């Protein structure tokens, strides 16, 4: 259906979607005009025409996307628009809540999706772009990729440029100059009103806003962070190993036999700072296996992390950890049972005085798999626990740069794979650039991308160099 843009603008004026005079905006400033786009929900024909224009843009851009594309309207005015466009295009829709649910699933984003899906964000009007950025941030925290933004009307006060500088692709159906020009030509507004709007736009540009400051942790080099007084001994050890080997690579050797474990470990050893194991999932592990693993760690200077993800009450975790403390430099834990679990681990470490400065934990704050049940509140409480037990907590396993603010804690992020984007069991992969620059990882975990490669040693070397160079780029740009 061909839409006459000029007629549509006149019709929007006739239903009072465009108003001229003196209006106080949400920001408190006085504007010479007001855009009341939400009124179109009472005019189905006009609503349909507007949504057709949006649909046309989306379908054209969708042809270039390799991922599943979903729609999300900025709450609340854009929700009915996104709904109609979803029906027009047959593209699924998501709803971003303004407030996270405190019951049920506690989701912030409603609808069916997979991590890594592309999302087109739809908004009615853009001034500064702040409301759009709020929606984009929440979608990205849910591991979704915002591919494009479409707004109905650009007030031409700098919002479009601001979002473009943020790296977003943004388009508008109309801008205010086009609107008042057509309305003046149609005899709907006077020359004086027309000029007053243009003058207002020129004199009320939104000042460029610096991108949200990233935590000091991301700006500082490992050497500086290792020297901080509050940095735990085990975190210092990780920093120092990384600096010495110029590696922030952790390899996850998720194989099924002890022989395979030792074979891969020896091949990747020169290139890693941490070797991550699931000993309880490997067949044929003996004391000799553990001894060989420790010998390799000492010879090639890397740490061993048993990814046990302990999550029981303090006393049970204490009993479990006693079987690991002698050989695993690091263990992973969930915070679901609270701080008493870490107290139990701390007691075991103190009982082994010779290991006091060389043992610690990573707490799982986020997961990289699709469909996990971790909520924002859970993450906040996990960070609190990490701060309380900073003497044994090396850092957090997470996916977002803004979860850890303290430079003394490390961010360990899994899900790196240069060749693949996902597997068939919900794991979502990301590039070294995604992990280090966007997600904020200090240490990146690579699994199948290395141990399933025909040449694990060479693959580990490639990942090591890519990840370390990306880390250097991050701190140099800060």
Automatic annotation (TrEMBL):
Entry EC no(s): 2.4.2.10, 4.1.1.23
Residues annotated as binding substrate: 254, 276, 368, 427, 447-448
Keyword flag Protein biosynthesis: no
Pathways involved: Pyrimidine metabolism; UMP biosynthesis via de novo pathway; UMP from orotate: step 1/2; Pyrimidine metabolism; UMP biosynthesis via de novo pathway; UMP from orotate: step 2/2
Any one GO molecular-function label of the UniProt entry: orotate phosphoribosyltransferase activity
Active site: 307, 309, 312
UniProt-listed GO biological process terms: 'de novo' pyrimidine nucleobase biosynthetic process; 'de novo' UMP biosynthetic process
Keywords from the UniProt entry: Decarboxylase, Glycosyltransferase, Lyase, Multifunctional enzyme, Pyrimidine biosynthesis, Transferase
Signal peptide from the UniProt entry: none
Domain Orotidine 5'-phosphate decarboxylase: 248-463
Domain of life according to the entry: Eukaryota
Residue stretches in coiled coil: none
PANTHER family registered for this protein in UniProt: OROTATE PHOSPHORIBOSYLTRANSFERASE, URIDINE 5'-MONOPHOSPHATE SYNTHASE
Family: In the C-terminal section; belongs to the OMP decarboxylase family.
HAMAP family: PyrE
Name recorded for this polypeptide: Uridine 5'-monophosphate synthase
């Amino acid at each position: 259906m061909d839409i006459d843009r000029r007629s549509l603008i006149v019709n929007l004026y006739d239903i009072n979607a465009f108003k001229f005079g003196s209006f106080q905006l949400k920001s408190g400033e006085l504007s010479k005009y007001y855009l009341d786009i939400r009124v179109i929900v009472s005019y189905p024909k006009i609503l349909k025409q507007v949504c057709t224009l949006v649909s046309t843009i989306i379908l054209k851009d969708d042809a270039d996307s390799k991922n599943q594309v979903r729609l999300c309207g900025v709450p609340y005015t854009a929700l009915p628009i996104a709904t109609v466009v979803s029906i027009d295009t047959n593209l699924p829709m998501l709803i971003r809540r303004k407030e996270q649910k405190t019951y049920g699933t506690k989701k912030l984003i409603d609808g069916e999706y997979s991590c890594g899906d592309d999302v087109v964000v739809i908004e009615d009007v853009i001034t500064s772009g702040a409301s759009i950025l709020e929606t984009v941030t929440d979608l990205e925290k849910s591991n979704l990729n915002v591919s494009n933004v479409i707004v109905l009307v650009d007030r031409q006060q700098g919002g479009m440029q601001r979002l473009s500088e943020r790296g977003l692709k943004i388009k508008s159906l109309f801008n205010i100059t086009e609107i008042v020009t057509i309305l003046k030509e149609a005899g709907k507004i006077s020359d004086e009103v027309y000029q007053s709007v243009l003058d207002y736009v020129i004199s009320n540009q939104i000042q460029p806003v610096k991108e949200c400051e990233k935590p000091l942790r991301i700006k500082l080099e490992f050497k500086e962070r290792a020297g901080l007084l509050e940095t735990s001994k085990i975190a210092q050890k990780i920093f120092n190993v990384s600096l010495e080997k110029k590696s922030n690579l952790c390899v996850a050797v998720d194989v099924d036999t002890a022989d395979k474990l030792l074979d891969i470990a020896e091949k990747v050893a020169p290139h890693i700072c941490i070797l991550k194991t699931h000993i309880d999932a490997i067949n044929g592990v003996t004391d000799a296996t553990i001894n060989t693993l420790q010998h390799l760690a000492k010879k090639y200077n890397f740490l061993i992390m048993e990814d046990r993800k302990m999550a029981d009450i303090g006393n049970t975790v204490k009993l479990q950890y006693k079987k690991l403390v002698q050989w695993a430099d690091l263990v992973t834990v969930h915070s679901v049972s609270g701080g008493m679990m870490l107290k139990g681990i701390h007691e075991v470490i103190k009982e082994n005085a010779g290991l006091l400065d060389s043992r610690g934990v990573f707490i799982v704050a986020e997961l990289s798999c699709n469909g996990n049940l971790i909520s924002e509140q859970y993450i906040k409480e996990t960070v609190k626990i990490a701060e309380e037990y900073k003497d044994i907590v090396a850092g957090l396993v997470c996916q977002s740069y803004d979860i850890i603010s303290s430079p003394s804690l490390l961010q360990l992020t899994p899900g790196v794979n240069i060749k693949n984007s996902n597997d068939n069991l919900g794991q979502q992969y990301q590039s070294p650039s995604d992990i280090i620059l966007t997600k904020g990882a200090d240490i990146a975990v690579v699994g199948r991308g290395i141990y399933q490669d025909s040449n694990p040693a060479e693959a580990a070397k490639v990942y090591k160099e890519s990840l370390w160079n990306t880390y250097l780029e991050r701190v140099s740009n800060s």
